[in-house]
Amino acid sequence: MLWPGIKKLGKELGFKRTNSQVVGILKNCFVRMYDGKNMKILEIFSPEIDDTDKEYILNLLNQNKIKKNEWKNNGIIIIFEEYIRPYSIIKIKNILFTIVEHFEQKYPDAIPKCHKCGEQKNADVYSTGNTSDFLCSDCLRRYKNDLDREYLEYQQLPTNYLSGFIGALLFSIPGIIITVLLFLFLDRLAAVSAILYIVFGMKGYKTFKGKTSPLGALIIIAVGIIMIGIGILVAYSAVILRELKTFDIDLLIQILKMPEVGKELQANIIIAYTVSIFYIIIQLFQITREWKFSKNIQKARDI
Length: 303
What we know:
Layout: H1 4-12, E1 16-17, E2 22-26, E3 29-36, E4 39-45, H2 51-63, E5 68-72, E6 75-81, H3 89-106, E7 123-128, E8 131-136, H4 137-155, H5 161-186, H6 194-207, H7 214-244, H8 249-256, H9 259-291, E9 298-299, E10 301-302
Antiparallel strand pairs: 1-2, 1-10, 2-3, 3-4, 4-6, 5-6, 7-8, 7-9
Helix pairs in contact: 2-3, 5-6, 5-7, 6-7, 7-9
């Protein structure tokens, strides 16, 4: 995910971008930046790194009260947590330049390493959808061959769309139970439970081995949309039965057919869809993008 702050900094530094990352070479380091959920992430990879470098970086992070980081081979992932307001882009830039200038001074003759073979030779930034890599020409050629082979294997996978659909339906049932409970105790706040149908549906789809593809994503979203209406209908019926203090299905059907009851039920369904529509659109976009097999590798594009 990319928000304006990271994109603006990347453009200022002359970096390139993928679908969800800003990437580039700064001094003798390979740098990635992107947004996550309540966080911004900065990845820095140096040609060399030793214990004294790690100690220097950790002291810098401690001074700036940054608590989360993860060491990688010749690099570090720094996590800037965001809760009430976005983390300062200026602070991220200062930390980035401080670390990069440290590596430039300590390893002045080094150049960034290829991410595949680990050798210091001429390479460039390439992207495959959301991800990015710094690759030399030999590794790029091998990577393309690997992608072609993986794509061929992907095409030969069984679709299993029907079993995935059944799995999504079955795993969505707990969402109905939650909707009923929320409707009984919190009334219209039950609409919030709509997002659970997508989460449960995806779990069921994968459990029943539905093929991860854009069509699979559409199946999950379609099941979620259907189950939202069913969930509200079942929950509303549960409220009526509670008021009647009897489990009389014939009487329940007669009540549901009453015009005023039908209007109230329709209003609750509209609320559920209104609350969930933005989440559904975002999930449709994200799942489709993630499940779309990308066999193309190309140079990262301009911001």
